[in-house]
């Protein structure tokens, strides 16, 4: 059940319960049966609310970039530690590349767990290690980018060291959600370093292939549920729409995004076919972004939406019921 549908269902159930309470003095025994049934149904749906495909994690481990980073970048170099970042949450800059929460926070809220402690600050917050650890660094990718911070491979190395030092057990791994966020920094670095449009398809393929290597590696460590982000419509971001006064998305860039997402869909479907248990899920940032933009009346020019592609097993968009800022 999608999160929006859950809320509609909850309002429906609430209405029924209010009606039962009003009529209770007239049909006490009969309505007691329905009241009990609806309470059970509400409890079931509340439980489903905090699950991904039936999996209820106890904590999160996060790898990736600024869409997921909650404070790993150094204060001396990252703008995320300066105003106006953090003005709506937590009220001051906190290292998040947002005025408030980021994807990690929203996903944690959806799942009913605490947002994991940033890796850089874990030694100062050992009491929060039970929430998991966020290894994501803003500006990074699956390969080295334009920022001198650890790429996703190195971030996973950090996690493996914690396992080797018995900070986390195999049971911790198996009961946790692993989030891999990739928002496009590899592509920005590719173009900045002289990459050509002719070489773009091959590079996109290499990025998705490396992302798959990372997913397989995390799975090999014992992870039972691994979420990976589909790429958002890069052609709709401000740096791409500024030339037309932010009125039209760049269709060429979004075509490249479609290619990335199509490859990712195919890769996740293959991985789930191999594991036989829908371990891998896709967080559909593309549709989340375009839905918000289209509601605002911004035409999103692209030849293909990710939902037009045959969805991979385990693909979900409901975790983006809280769309990122």
Word description of this protein:
The protein is α/β, with parallel strands linked by helices. It has a single domain (54-233, 250-303), classed as 3-Layer(aba) Sandwich (Rossmann fold), CATH 3.40.50.1110. Helices cover 43% and strands 7% of the residues. The chain has helices at residues 3-23, 28-49, 103-111, 152-164, 170-174, 185-192, 200-220, 238-241, 251-275, 285-295, and strands spanning 59-63, 117-118, 132-134, 176-180, 225-229, 280-283. The longest helix is centred in the C-terminal third of the chain and has 25 residues, at 251-275. The chain is globular. This is Gdsl esteraselipase. GO terms for molecular function: hydrolase activity, acting on ester bonds.
CATH superfamily: SGNH hydrolase
Unreliable spans are 1-32, 302-325
Sequence of secondary-structure elements: HHEHEEHHEHHEHHEH
The domain count comes to: 1
The Rg value, from CA coordinates, equals 21 Å
DSSP strand count:
6
Q: Determine the mean pLDDT.
A: 80
Q: Can you tell me the CATH architecture?
A: 3-Layer(aba) Sandwich
The CATH topology name reads Rossmann fold
Number of helices: 10
Report strand %.
5-15%
Can you tell me the CATH class?
Alpha Beta
Protein name: Gdsl esteraselipase
GO biological process, one term: lipid catabolic process
GO molecular function, one term: hydrolase activity, acting on ester bonds
Keywords: Hydrolase, Lipid degradation, Lipid metabolism, Signal
């Amino acid at each position: 059940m999608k999160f929006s549908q859950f809320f509609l269902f909850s309002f429906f159930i609430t209405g029924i319960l209010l009606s039962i309470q009003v009529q209770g003095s007239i049909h006490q025994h009969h309505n007691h049966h329905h009241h009990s049934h609806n309470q059970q149904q509400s409890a079931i749906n509340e439980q489903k609310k905090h699950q991904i495909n039936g999996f209820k994690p106890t904590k999160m481990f996060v790898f990736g970039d600024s869409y997921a980073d909650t404070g790993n970048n150094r204060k001396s170099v990252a703008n995320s530690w300066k105003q106006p970042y953090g003005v709506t949450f937590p009220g001051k800059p906190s290292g998040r590349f947002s005025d408030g929460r980021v994807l990690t926070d929203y996903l944690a809220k959806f799942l009913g767990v605490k947002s994991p402690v940033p890796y850089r600050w874990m030694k100062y917050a050992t009491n929060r290690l039970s929430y998991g650890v966020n290894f994501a660094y803003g500006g990074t990718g699956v390969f080295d980018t334009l920022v001198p911070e650890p790429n996703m491979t190195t971030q996973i190395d950090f996690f493996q060291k914690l396992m080797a030092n018995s900070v986390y057990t195999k049971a911790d791994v198996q009961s946790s959600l692993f989030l891999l966020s990739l928002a496009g920094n590899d592509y920005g670095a590719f173009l900045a370093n002289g990459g050509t449009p002719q070489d773009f398809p091959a590079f996109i393929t290499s990025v998705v292939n490396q992302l798959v290597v990372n997913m397989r590696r995390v799975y090999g460590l014992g992870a039972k549920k691994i979420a990976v982000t589909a790429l958002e419509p890069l052609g709709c971001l401000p740096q791409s729409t500024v030339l037309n006064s932010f009125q039209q998305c760049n269709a060429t860039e979004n075509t490249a995004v479609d290619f990335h997402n199509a490859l990712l869909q195919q890769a996740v479907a293959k991985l789930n076919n191999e594991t036989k248990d829908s371990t891998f899920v896709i967080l559909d940032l593309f549709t989340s972004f375009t839905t918000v933009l289209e509601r605002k009346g911004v035409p999103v020019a692209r030849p293909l939406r990710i939902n037009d592609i045959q969805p991979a097993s385990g693909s979900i968009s409901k975790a983006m019921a809280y769309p990122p800022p």
